[in-house]
Specification:
heterodimer, A: 777 residues, alpha+beta, five-stranded mixed beta sheet, 21 helices, globular, B: 282 residues, five-stranded antiparallel beta sheet, four-stranded antiparallel beta sheet
Chain lengths: 777, 282
Amino acid sequence: MAEQKGYLGALARVTGETSYVNDVNPPGLLHMAVVRSPHPHAEILGVHKAEAEQLHPSVRVFTAQELLPRLNPIPHFLEPTVFGARHFDIYPLPSERVRYVGEPVAVVVADSRWRAVAAARAVRVDYRPLPAVLSPEESLRDDAPQLSPEGNVFMANRIGTGDATTALRQAPYRLRETLSIQRYTSAPLETRGYVAVWDASSRRLTYHASCQNPHQLRASVATALGLAESDVHVLTPAVGGSFGLKMHGHPEEPLVALLSIITGRPVKWIEDRSECLLIGGREQTHEFEVGFEADGTIVAFRDRVVADVGIPGATLGWAMARLSATTLPSGYRIPNVDIEYQAVMTNKPPWNATRGYGKESAIVAMERVVDMIARELGIDPVDVRRRNLLTAAELPHKMPAGFQIDSGDYLTVLEKAVELASYDEARARQREETGHVRTGIGVAFEMTPEAGGIKGTMVQDYESATVRVAPTGAVTLLSGVTSPGGGNDSGLAQVVAASLGVPWREVRVIQGDTDMCPYGFGNYSGRSTLIGGGAAHLAATRMREKLLTAAADHLGRSAEELDLRDSAVVDADGTQLMTLAELSRGLYSGVIASSVTPPLEITETYRPGGVDASKAHNYPSFSNGVYIATVEVDTLTGVVKVREIHAVHDCGRVLDQVLVDGQIHGAIAMGIGGALFEEQRYAPDGNLLNDRFKAYLMARANDMPTITIAHHETPSPNSLLGTKGAGEAGIGGTVAAVASAVEDALAGFGARVRELPLTPPRVLAAMDARTREEVSS
Amino acid sequence: MSTMTYHAPESAEEAVGLVAEDPEGTVVLGGGTFAVPALRRSPRVARRVVDLRRAGLGTVTVTEDEVTVGATTSYSRLIATAELDEAAPILATMARGITGGASIRNQGTVGGALCHRMPNADSPGVFVALGAEAVVRTEAGEERVPLTEFLEPSYVDTHPPHVLEALRFPAVRSVRQGYRKLKVAQGTWPIVTAAVRIDPGEHGDTVTVVLGGIARPPVVVEVPLGTSVDQAGPDVVDTVRERVREDLAGREIWTDEFAPAGYRRVVAPRVAAGVLEEVLAP
């Protein structure tokens, strides 16, 4: 098992010393605020800015008519045609028609944030409301308003294997069920924010951004503004959570920069919480049918997935609907599979990527199916999983979508989880229970494709790293990956330290600076340690070889006899021969004669193996885990308390358990939110009802259960360090386990979980028809 | 640009004078935990903010017979006032159950929660159950108003400019009582609050249930037992649950993003019965 080292800069984070983008305040700063549509669908008749501009001399209002001549379409993060969707151009501001509440209509700058906000409120916009649709059902009607010239289905496809129709017909047992997963989102503690500083003399834009992908953001902003990519320098300070929200393509990104160019002053925009909660991350229904045998063996599975993706933007959220479909049927051995998916447009704000990237919703659906079989047959849900999960010997395994699961030992992970949770004893206690508070136990298996790449896009599965050793011996890693705040910088420092032979806290990690760092793709898809760590390992290893060559030259020894440990050159006995500082200074100053020529700087690029080059979309590794939730359900009120989560996780080789556990803890919190609390709810007029944390409920510390985590390591054969990625796992497994536990607690009532989140009204309504009628009145 | 003036009066008299000068354009701050975010979110631009932090309204006085809670008393102050454990146990229970962290406990005020007349706040039901009067300062002087009247949504529009000074109620040392709230998650407002007290009378005990989160003002259901609660037997819980259910059946019930009216109608009698069971537990 890995060491437990921890998190660089943790103390600064928790004591408020860390600087974020909102701490960037250059002289002469102006603040941008956005005038947003109050209508879900409307024609823009006119924008009147005089009243707003009279509020204060610093206020200036800019309309689409004024700005669009200076803007190109926002480049898509993910070109829609790659996944069979339609290409469309999208500009930061619409000129004629708004299509969702919150769509930017105009922008305002002023010399203070609140002046800008007040001025934005004072901008008067004339609209002619148009019919709107707020659900796929409405959107797919023949008489629905057309949200794009090509219709309201943005993307659709079908994947599968075998003959599901025949297998379902012939199966001894067959069940149909539905599941509705709510719209919810990522909601990082730090919202998005950008500070653009245009230097007219050098014609260069310095762009501070709380973002995930600085190099691609640089290209996006440059393209939208008609600048050369080299005219833009993106800097990413510390980030307070991203979870996909901060992948680029948002309209505010080029607008901040353009206003800086127009005004000649730095311009900042910090997203308000209500703006942050506009963005969606999930919302889909599953209509599934499963055929199985008397012992629980699944023979066929069919699922029709309909996702409400709102109005697609240049962000890549809409593609999550596809990933839900392609992740099915998870790690189960099902010979006949038929998955049909549709991404349907409605008059809701766009999706952006959200942790799990659609894969978590697939897990929730699949685990519901397995539970359904267990209930129908009256056998333990663990046994149904034992019977149907792929065995270690069956891996690698090609999924219906073509993804190849690299490795794993699902049954051992399952058994470890059963033991960790004392499952049998918990079941025995449950049987003795009386009273109106019922305990439920839910089990979920989760398999998560991690570190993906998509051909033809700037979502790639390779990464670069530069290792530098300064004359003083100071070691710096410049990485193409960025940290969203979860601590991958600490992990990368550990990789470099171990590969080079220096103390890990002495490795300075620089990320997020497009002028300094090698080209890279930032953070997403659990790639940072798997791919970025691989690149860092290669660069550090080569640097070590170079340093030992120089030391050997200087000492008249063979490089094979030498080693680097704790920043010193040692011999085979461990005797220190010279320090790294002495060696480095000697090389830089020419005192040490060697075949090695300074500077001591090496850049390496790494791409994991196991990738099928003939496929457009690949994942080199698939983490997995089993989550067992214990909940208490008050059958009088429907209130659910999650008491325990036991998780056994396999992300391959664990480099630092503290960091991996941190990822899983966070994912479990998000999963509990998704199972019980989080939901973006809309009024009939298309306005979000809960646009703040008091109403958009996330799990807080005192909503959290006792969490027990164990690891099972099956190193990935495809990755240099044996890691599989751990950034996207945990949410789907937790949502599924909690949902399963609630249903288990209410088994005596015949309750079925068909709709998430499991709010108290929904739980009561699930218990019996009469209560359902009363509760919904 | 319009300007907003900030005032921190040093007495209730001074405060009400400021409010009276511009009642429509004034926002009064207790602790500001609700009003300040609301100001940020609202298109309404306040011309004047009257902050009561220096008005001397943050004290709690407990005598043998009466409790006075200043309008700007924080929940932390309530928690720290040990005398309330005996003189108003449900108030102490309510204060300890306030969520939102130290910022809400230290900054939020009981008066602020009442003045916003949010049906699903913690305070209204508890103070109504305690039989509190609102001590209200107008330019004409001090008035005592039954809290249920003060909590009517129309009170502000139908009364002269005023400032809430305090809540005053009899000490309830010998009254059996209990309080509980039902929440979706820890970080938000209750869906239902239930305060229960059992008062002895000439013709037997009366169980009073006060429900918050149901309507404005809180719903009060009185159940005279005609005997003592201990002699009434275990059926008393069912009786009270049924009386609450009957009372709510004909009412218009509050609905919000956390729960529809129907849910509140179903669970409120159950929550009230649960509190009564706790109160009666040996």
